[in-house]
């Protein structure tokens, strides 16, 4: 890492940790998710003793993340909902605030590369979010240990860690978008609105649009239906929301063996057992790659825009 | 004296505006150079091109022989820049802000803090070193800004409108500080301003910059000689009565190019006599010869303000 990058990185991390905004966002996420965990633990505890399976066999710890009592959304649902807000919230004024404070010109008149400024912001936000989610994950596992009285299996730990990492990548996508807007728009309010619009679009309207232009009618030959589903899936997967949902579903629910339609050939050979971790990972590799790619593309756009921008004044 | 800043045919064209037009200028080692011009003259654009922060449409800017467009990082290692309306991180202390700059310039933590404390003392902010910058006054911010440009131990400092928004007393002190620092450290200083009389006192040379063009360069004396070639000297004469006959007599004096008269109600008045030579004694004699009472006689030397106004008269 270049020296100037690490200096800026340290400054950004300190900024986040001291900012009200970050602490409020974190508190919000910690409280909601812990509440959902608590209800999940209660629900599982009331169900498990009746099950004839021994504890541990059914991915108990994973269920902590996905179970809901029907009133409060599950941990995964909460995180999926709040992660974009966290990404947007942390970075929507990343560059515009430096510009408006008049510190951007001063920074850029030091012997540092221009890209170091945005790279440092990006890495710092990601590092802070990553550490927070890992911590949250371990709190959850600790809580599970306390509630169930048995430790998670190695595979469960792996799945949970990966789920948290994928979540960090998902936050990074939104954060990259927010940085792009913070470069493009000088007013922080414009940037927030733009970010929220994109988020609303992908979480509410995009699925409707996909249903409209690529409906699954279920009519015609098997091939027709498969083609319909394929098209629907392809379009859905252009949205980071879909990619994240698919990835987390596979990671946290090992009994989900495939995404999309199951053909007869696939079903015949399949044994109804949970998918091993490496198989799950293989299945969602494209989703993870897609999220990373989105982040990289958005960052690339920010980079190009920032390099060409007039940095003058407030 | 070696050239430190060399601008050759520097030009910046924005869509329709030619912000800087074929600017050629050399600033020498140890000089305090004032780039003077009204708002929108292109001063900031010129400075940003010298730092490689704005790409010139044409021409080159070299500092210590380094091309600012090609090797901006190297230029930024040796040039301290104080932007107009400089900003700091308000939630950090003055010291922390300086230390951050020092570290971005490759200094380690311990050296950075020592250097920052020393500089804060130099600019008179010792007592405020550990206060958050959010609580600084405008004048204190400018001082901190000056310290910030110096912390990288530059060879050249470029100050964009450094006196903007400080009270007159503060301006004098601040400029004197710049002057002292530059002479003590052997720094070359380029500062821009649209307040002529403010910077007149501390600049070794000035350049007058209007509409992207440099229209005159030199010491203040040289400039006044250049511009007021026809009427370098002027004398203010107050007399009573100041009638047409006396005005005519003044106009007929050898070397007089122009007489401006302001009459008062009591028949007296004031005449500003401009000439190519010193006509003070002749003017006094003319007044006495006309039988009038000589109330006042002042020689006027031209300052930068007059020079500057001359240019605008010429342009209008
Ligand atoms: N990014 C820009 N796009 C278009 N015109 C600009 C831009 N920046 C500055 N200008 C124009 O260039 C001219 C010079 O501006 P500037 O260098 O800021 O002058 P000064 O610093 O002397 O007040 C002005 O007419 C200004 O409007
Ligand atoms: Mg300016």
TrEMBL record, chain A:
One Gene Ontology CC term in the entry: plasma membrane
The protein's GO terms of the molecular function aspect are: ABC-type transporter activity
Transmembrane stretches, start-end? 20-41, 72-92, 122-148, 160-181, 193-214, 284-306
Highest taxon of the source? Bacteria
Q: Does the keyword RNA-binding apply?
A: no
One Pfam family, short name please?
A: ABC2_membrane_2
What keyword terms does UniProt attach to this protein?
A: Membrane, Transmembrane, Transmembrane helix
Q: What is this protein called?
A: ABC transporter permease
Look up keyword Membrane and say if it applies.
yes
User: To which species is this protein native?
Assistant: Hydrogenibacillus schlegelii (Bacillus schlegelii)
Automatic annotation (TrEMBL), chain B:
Which SUPFAM superfamilies does this one have? P-loop containing nucleoside triphosphate hydrolases
Output the Gene Ontology terms for molecular function: ATP binding; ATP hydrolysis activity
Q: Does the keyword section mention Aminoacyl-tRNA synthetase?
A: no
Task: Kindly name one Pfam family recorded for this protein.
Answer: ABC_tran
Protein name from the UniProt record = ABC-type multidrug transport system, ATPase component
Show where the ABC transporter domain sits.
5-236
The portions of this protein that span the membrane are: none
Lineage summary: Bacteria, Bacillati, Bacillota, Bacilli, Bacillales
Q: Write the record's keywords in alphabetical order, separated by commas.
A: ATP-binding, Nucleotide-binding, Transport
Q: Which family does it belong to?
A: Belongs to the ABC transporter superfamily.
Disulfide bond listed as a keyword: no
Against SMART domains, the record matches this protein to:
AAA (SM00382)
Which InterPro entries has this protein been placed in?
A: AAA+_ATPase (IPR003593), ABC_transporter-like_ATP-bd (IPR003439), P-loop_NTPase (IPR027417)
